[in-house]
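#struct-help
A.M.: can someone run this one for me? Single chain, 445 residues.
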Amino acid sequence: MQPLQTMARLRRKACVALFLFTLFIFGSLMGLRTLKPTDGFSDLAPGLELLPILGGRMSREATESPVQAHPHGGNTKAALSNSGPEGTIFYDVHIFYYTWYGSPHMDGKYIHWDHILVPHWDPKVANSYPKGKHMPPEDIASSFYPELNSYSSRDPDVLESHMEQIGASAAGVLVLSWFPPGLADDNGEPAEDLVPAVLDAAYRHNLKVAFQIQPYRGRNDQTLHDNIKYIIDRYGDHGAFYRFTSSTGKSLPLFYIYDSYLTPPESWSEFLTPTGSHSVRGSAYDSMFIALIVEERHKHDILAGGFDGMYTYFASNGFSFGSSHQNWKAIKAFCDGNNLLFIPSVGPGYIDTSIRPWNNHNTRNRVNGRYYETALQAALNVRPEIVTITSFNEWHEGTQIERAMPKKTVTRVYLDYQPHGPEHYLELTRRWAEQFNKEKQDWLI
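D.P.: on it. Structure tokens below:
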């Protein structure tokens, strides 16, 4: 009987061990899902959810004002790095930056922190979710809470803190979300008059400023041409104005064109190809123009339109073809074969349910920084010329690396960066920026 009892005990132990092992494997797979979806559109019904979000996506900033003259910035990228007050910074690491926030102290009211809850485009689905808008300062339009509280982008102290934090992250170029004078996104106010203050603050920290031009009503190849003239005429001589030095040694401004796919390539080619009816090529306003790749077919449109490269923007791996890490090698090969820049965009995570409560399936958990590091490694694997970070302070979509703090109110418990400190994602960015530039030197050997 003793051997039989022993065998029964061993069988029970084996069953328990097998159960625990199965549980561990299941948990690991669920965790990995947040890091790398197996399918480029794993969480989207094909064609149903992507385009409405993209087409109706919040636009960004915008009015006007003279700029202080500074010594010309020179070849910002001829030297890939520079020393700033916060340490070495790298001009091949770009970070998306937003100046659309307002508070009663500076602006007479809250702007963007009180963002509406965007209704789903299907009325049947929309009826299942809350409506209305947020009520700052306790209830803001973000799943995280800023260490600087619900701030105003016009506050000089906030601007200075932002430049310090960007310098601490080692990103050398902030990419300012831009609307023409007098224009703004649906939930914001014109903020183009802030550009001089941003340039001046960046200059004090040896940072450079590039522009991401947002879609606005009536934007086309001709109005964009006018925008480029305006920006270069007004800010091109500022010491913080970013210029990219190409492989041929030519130093040119660089512009990111958000939602570029909204304008057909035939129209873009009138502006961006040498034979176009109002070509910018070879003129005083010639620049590097970087288009947004969302769907796979966009790469051919970007080439036909005369763009100089493409970027991916979205921080949700698997949300679009362009933002899926598994596609970056193929996109990079296409760009290399057609003399285009490929600029992958990486982010620390994604959660926009504070403004799109129905969009939970596109949430990407930060996993205490592992999601970010997975994205950064994927970017480095394709040996890009430039890497973009989405974002410094897009709080609505939870892609920010700006310092956040734990906060609990009567009605809400905000996410935070614990068990790490508020500067965790700034530190991770610096570590990977340094790694990127170290590896770059090896690539050139």
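A.M.: thanks! The radius of gyration is 23 Å.
D.P.: also worth noting: Residues 270 and 277 are 5 Å apart (CA to CA).
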